[in-house]
Amino acid sequence: MIAMERKEDKVVDIFLKTIRRYDMIRKGESVMVALSGGPDSVSLFDLFYRIRADWKLNIHLVHVNHSLRGEASDRDQMFAERFARELKMPISIKKIDVEKFSKDHRMSLEEAGRECRLQFFKEEGARLGISKVALGHHRDDQAETVLFRLIRGTGLRGIGGMKPVSEWQNLTLIRPLIEFGKEMLQDYVRDRKLTYCVDGSNTHTHFVRNRIRHQLIPYLERHYNPRIKTALAHLADTVALDLAFIEELALKHYPKIVRKRKGSLITLKKKKFLLEPEALRFRILQKAIRELDPDSELTYFHWDEIRKALERNAEKFEIHIPSETSVSFERKEIILKKPVADKTEQYRYELPLGGKIRIKEKGLEFAAEAFEQRIYKEDRQDKTCGIFDLDKISFPIVIRNRREGDMFQPLGMPFPKKLKEFLISRKVASYDKNVMPLFLSGNEIFWVYGVEISERFKVSHKTRRFLKISNIA
Asked: 49, 139, 253, 442: least buried by Cβ within 10 Å?
């Protein structure tokens, strides 16, 4: 019995050392703990539960039902509900059709699941006033992540794996189990006699990560290195340290290389830029791009094109990265520009029910009609015509063009996202982004004209009254 207690105390000691080492939480803070119901998340919660009094922590559980395994997913949700109820812990639960989301947004199921989870955590965090969420990733997950990214192709940032502490939009993601091996957590759950549920999909080799876990890693352990998981986790740690040093150095050199910074324009001193080592050049350029657009990412493909043009001393060169920020050269300068909306083109109109309005900036005229009967599907295929649930719309409808900070919840997506990101993902041309009509009910966009309607205002089997908005120009 004493030996078992010592084992448990060792686990708590490692848990606390990890929290302190990476400054994950502080006494008196609030934290959301992601509870899938599996042994990793249950041990994560149990460790937080054991220190909550000493650390004066406010713990709130969050659970996502991905709807991928039918009744099994619902059983996991019921387990989470019962688990929270028995311990008198607050819990937030969201059921999401991840498979539909992945198809609608052309993502893998794994990517879609992650996106849906993080969006839900962000939504709940904003509602609860909690900015931190604890995730149950451990050292074995880290090893799988490194291999997964190597197989797909990655750089230092990818090889660095999952950070113990990272930022995602307005959330801080913490991973207090990142220094634990899975076996130690399994022993902890067994010794503590904790109940948990098993996700059957973890054994399905349809998923790439599961093939890495159940096929590739065991093969590497048998034939190459029995401690491959530890080796990969250590690789992630050392690469993360090296990357942090390089990025800090780039940050220090950056101000010396910037010639001018004004609005949507940054120019770099070409000669000084070329004197830097290539690793710093890449990160200096990345910093300048992110300064113009925080959502931008300098890919290896674009960097390789820029590097080759610099090497051949090209005087005429221009390239657009995915956010539409352009990088071009002049004799002494590297010029980065971000397209901006022409402020003189901002417009705003109101469309009453049963009325018409002409948008002179676009040469379009819209009419809004109400219907009691269901409208045929043929109308819904026409992108110049929108069909909506009339009872969800407030009048008059506002028609305007884009504003900074606009959010939109696309059809099939469980959460709103930045309108800017949505338009980039749909490859909408830069000029069109700034002048295309947006239809609002109150302050919420329910139709991006010609592109997509909002999930929140769509017609469903419960709809009794219908609104049809059509272009009659």
From this structure: 442
The label of the residue with tokens 């690793």 reads 279
What is the radius of gyration, based on Cα positions, of the chain?
A: 26
Domain ranges in the chain? 2-139+157-202, 263-337, 343-471
Going by their DSSP bridges, the two strands 132-134 and 30-34 should be labelled as parallel
Give the CATH fold of the 343-471 domain: Phenylalanyl-tRNA Synthetase; Chain B, domain 3 (3.50.40)
CA distance 95 to 459: 20
Per DSSP, the three-state class of 441 is: strand
Residues 6+ apart with CB under 8 A from 297: 286, 321, 322, 323
Provide the 3-class DSSP secondary structure of residue 133: strand
Residue with tokens 């960097």: 303
Whose tokens are 């390089």? That residue is: 246
Q: Which DSSP state fits 318? A: E
DSSP letter at 373 equals S
Q: How many CA atoms lie within 13 A of 68 on its CB side?
A: 20
Report residue 267 as tokens: 């120019």
Nearest to 365 by CA among 354, 356, 355: 356
Residues 6+ apart with CB under 8 A from 289: 296, 298, 321, 323, 325, 327, 336
pLDDT in tens, 68-120: 888 888 899 999 999 999 999 999 999 988 888 888 777 778 888 888 999 89
Question: Does domain 2-139+157-202 correspond to CATH entry 3.40.50.620?
Answer: yes
Q: How confident is the model at residue 311 (pLDDT cuts 50, 70, 90)?
A: confident
Which residues of 382-443 form beta strands (DSSP E)?
385-389, 397-400, 407-408, 417-418, 438-441
Main-chain phi, psi angles of 395, to 5 degrees:
-115, 155
Instruction: Name which residue leads in pLDDT, 2 or 396.
Output: 396
CA distance 409 to 456: 7
Say what the pTM is: 0.70
Angle at 228 between CA 139 and CA 225, to 5 degrees: 160
Strands (E), 12-65: 30-34, 58-65
CATH of 263-337, one of 3.40.50.2000, 3.40.50.300, 3.30.70.270, 3.30.465.60: 3.30.465.60
Q: Find where tokens 């006699």 sit.
A: 193
